[in-house]
Structures are given as structure tokens and as C-alpha cells.
Amino acid sequence: MKRRRLKRYHPPGTSPGTLPLTGERGELLFLSYGRQGLVRRSVGSVEEALGVSREKAWLRILGLGTHTVAQLGQALGVHPLALEDALNPGQRPKIEAYERYLFLVLDIPTLGEEGLEEVQVSVLLFPQLVVSIEEKPNGFFAGVEKRLELGKGRLFELGSDYLAYALVDAAVDHYFPVLEKLGERLEAMEEALLARKDDVLPGLHQLRRELLRLRRSLWPLRDAVGALLRLDSPLLSPEVRVFLRDVQDHTLYLLDIVETYREMAGSLLDLSLSTMAQRTNEVMKVLTVIGTIFLPLTFLVGVYGMNFQHMPELAWPWAYPALWGIMVALALGMLWAFRRRGWL
After folding, report:
1. What would the pLDDT profile of 52-78 be if each residue is shown by its tens digit?
2. Helix/strand/coil (H/E/C) assignment for every residue in the chain
């Protein structure tokens, strides 16, 4: 299983707002849209992107490049603490309001062959500009780009705050396919456990860890969306607030699914442990029955195995077959008695 990436920290005593050196340069993709339609282009720097005449725009920074993010902070006056959070993956989803812009941190999950992975996306909302700082290139917002390519719809009718809402909505929607796959795995484990086909304990522990990670992402995301709805900011129009309520409903629904799956996983874990204990009890019961049957047989063999001279039965010609008959009769009689009592 892919372990959760821990948040990077500066050495103790480092000044707050110090940007970590990632050694990377983020790829810049600039999309300007409005009455003239959509214009999409790759740019070499933040200054080049901001120099393009635009009605509304979306600047995507793909990859955590310290130099690129520092340029963004200088050009748009972004607070160093916000830039530091954007360059440090592993942040809790949150919303922070500044005088000229809003800063959001989103955590988007993906489920691949290596297990659950989370990609951080930071969003800056300005009056006519949205900036997304994405941890690495991804296809999370392909649907939003397709809607922009249509050249019509609410993305063109409303302001940049609707684009920011669309990004948050796309991030929340990516939880649904992940939870669907986890639910399928949970059902398969339940069927395998009831059929006693294989040991599901390792996979069950991994599933519980993944659900816990999703829960840790969804709880702060729910709080962030709620805080965004309560925020008194001119950057958010009443029309967009209505759509944000729908996103809040989705986060609550996702949390309900995660809690349900966690309870189901816990119940399956208890069932797995109970099944293992039951199998052990069945084995011990069989061994106990065998030991009980052999106890009188061992006694008989021990008695007639003693080396005394005066044992009349030893001189009897039918002593050996008689002893075998008694032993077989004892074993069969005990088996019949155990079955009659329901012990077998």
C-alpha cells in the first residue's frame, strides 16, 4: 500500500512563510475566456500570463516549482504563508480569506495499483482571475476545460467565482469513484469471508486505513466548504453561493458513505476474527474427541502390556481378537454417544 505522504517541515526556528526549495519549475497553462471565447496557451512565466489581455482567466501551475510560485506571489501580492502551504503537500483542506483574494486548499484522492494517493490542489480566487497550483499534472479538471471549450454556459455568464466553484465541485466529485471502488472491494471481501475462500484480513486492514485517510480529508473539506458559504466576501456572488450549498451536500453525503463503509469494515474485521476463532474451536473439538476416544483404548493396551506372569487373559487363545473387538466397540460406542448429544 502506498503510504500517506507526510507534510514537509522546515528546520525548527525557520521564519514562517519561507518557501521550500523543490528544485522544480512548474508548467504554466493559461486559459482566458469571455465574450471572445476560450484562448488556451502555454506560457513561460507568470508575468507573461498576467500580461495577456483578458476578461476572465484561469492560470494553472502544474507542479510545485518554488521559482514559479515565488513569481506568482510577487506579481499578485499573495501572502508568503499561503505560498508556503501551496508548496507543502499534505495540508488539511481549508479556506483562508485575505483582503484581495481567497485561498483554498483541496485534497483530491486517486485509487491506483499502489493504493490510495492524494494530490493537493491550491486555488487562489481573484476578481477576474483564478490560479490553481497543482501538485503534479493530472486530469482532475478535464471536465471543466471541456465546458470552457463549449464557449457558453454559466462559466461564461457568471464571474470567476463560478470557475473556482467548478474546481471545488470537480475535486469533491472525484471522491465518488474512489468510494465506489472501495465499496466493491468491501463487498468482495464480505463474499470471500462468508465463503471461507481466502484470508481477507490483510486486505481488510488496508481498506480500513484508506477509509480513515478519506475521512481525514473529508472532515476538514466539509468545514472548509461550510466556512466558504458563511464567508462575507464580495468575491462570492449570491448565485455561486447557491451552487456551493450543493457541494456542501455532496461532502456530507460522502462522509455518510465513508462512515458506513468504516462500520462495515469493522464488522467484517470482527467477523473475520470470529471465523478464525470458530475454526480453531472446531479443530480443538476434533482433537478433543480423538483424545477422548483413545483414552480408554490406551488404558486397555496399558493394562495388558504389563509384564506380570499371572495374567489369565494372556493364556486365552481368543484374547487378542477379543481385545480388538472391545476396543473397536468402545470407539464406535463413544462416537455414537457424541453424535447423539450433538457434540459432533
Report:
1. 877 899 999 998 888 889 989 999 999
2. CCCCCCCCCCCCCCCCCCCCCCCCCCEEEEEEEECCEEEEEEECCHHHHHCCCCCEEEEEEECCCHHHHHHHHHHHCCCHHHHHHHHCCCCCCEEEECCCCEEEEEEEEEEECCEEEEEEEEEEECCCEEEEEECCCCCCCHHHHHHHHCCCCHHHHCCHHHHHHHHHHHHHHCHHHHHHHHHHHHHHHHHHHHHCCCCCHHHHHHHHHHHHHHHHHHHHHHHHHHHHHHCCCCCCCHHHHHHHHHHHHHHHHHHHHHHHHHHHHHHHHHHHHHHHHHHHHHHHHHHHHHHHHHHHHHHHHHHCCCCCCCCHHHHCCCHHHHHHHHHHHHHHHHHHHHHHCCCC
**Domains of the chain: residue spans and CATH:** 27-275 (3.30.460.20), 285-340 (1.20.58.340)
Task: Give me the long-range contacts of 297-302 (CB less than 8 A, separation at least 24).
Answer: 297/327, 297/330, 297/331, 300/326, 300/327, 301/327
**Cell 448565485, residue located:** 239
**Is the pTM of the predicted complex or chain greater than 0.85?**
no
* Cβ count near 31 (within 10 Å): 21
Query: For 1-56, what is each residue's pLDDT tens digit?
Result: 444 454 555 666 666 767 776 666 778 999 999 887 888 899 888 888 888 877 89
β-partners of residue 300 are: none
